[in-house]
Input
Amino acid sequence: MIAKIGKGDNLWGALKYNQQKVDNQNGTVLFTNKIPDLWDRPYTVQFFHQYFEPYLIANNKTEKPLRHISLNPDPEDQVDDKNYRKMARQYMQEMGYGDQPYVVFKHTDIDRTHIHIVTTCVQLDGKKISDRYDHHRSMEICRTLEQQYHLKVANEIKSTGKNLIFKPVDYKKGNIKTQLSAILRHIPQTYNFQTVGSYNALLSQFNITLEEVSGERHGKMKKGFVYFATDENGKKISPPFKSSLFGKHAGTEHIRSVMERSKIKMKNDPSKWLLQRTIETAISTSNSESSFKKQLLEQGIATVIRKNDRGRMYGITFIDHHSKSVWNGSQLSKKLSANAFDTLWEGTKPTTAFNNHRHDDASHENHTEKYLPKDVPELFEGFFGGLLSADTDNQEEQIFESQMKKRQRKRRKT
Output
């Protein structure tokens, strides 16, 4: 069994997320603690919230008073409601929340039945329940519950590949090529990603960006990658480095093979389901793009958002550093697509952590002319002499742009 602990400030959102499951007949309220049971009428968010208010009022200085916990047995485990109640009560007691108000929801909208628990870390006397080492304690409790209830031992999402530590490129230290090489030689062997756009999103975490370039040489079209170091804001700060400088692992052919391999490996990867649940929990416990990103980052998940010049989101990618996998939001669920998030955060347009420049041909050409070395090999020059192709993920933006143009044409006609 795997437990995920979400920490946030949006208690109402967490209650609403779970209660909607119940209202849509995709969930049930298993039991409540320090909250009366209702036998004559349905539960509501308002009903639950009133029993948390005295605790929240007792200490309004705690930044993240909400705890949104999910307990996830293995899909092959058959856990009945009676044992779910026992496990939830024991888990909360041993985690130090036994005397707190909490609600236990059972989700049944997917084949992997699991439970969510909503509570607060603020006590009636205003003191906060310590969350030091809570993830470690949570894992120990899960191991105990597995033995008591004869559950399959969970393989806590293991890192694939080598346990390497990658440090972002720091252009201030110089020797950029060496820094790039230390990352590019190993990243493709360590992470799974299915598109060039996902690969680029992953590289952005280490202050690197790539461009896929193509050009004609001796009557044949050639394609390749060039890499740039970037600053913390995603702005290129180095000349382009052709992929061959870093070995075959950074080249087009190998990256394509990694993508094909990843498509097969990630298709039935159990980490996909757990990542989806974690993201949905973060949505329910956060009230802005920045708090959403921060909460996921605390759980080892980076969020990369791409926006066009108008600030409209056209792509969102999640990098799970635990499972070493990179997912576009739409690959996880339609509810986690860029359009869904753009609607969710409409009116709040914070600056994103990723380089959101448009990938149009003109901007690429201007940039490569500026940094093109004088002694590049003939083939490298051929790349830059041809048309620079956009990465695979830009198909999302092209679809979005097409939709916007259709809307504009309709407005003109009216």
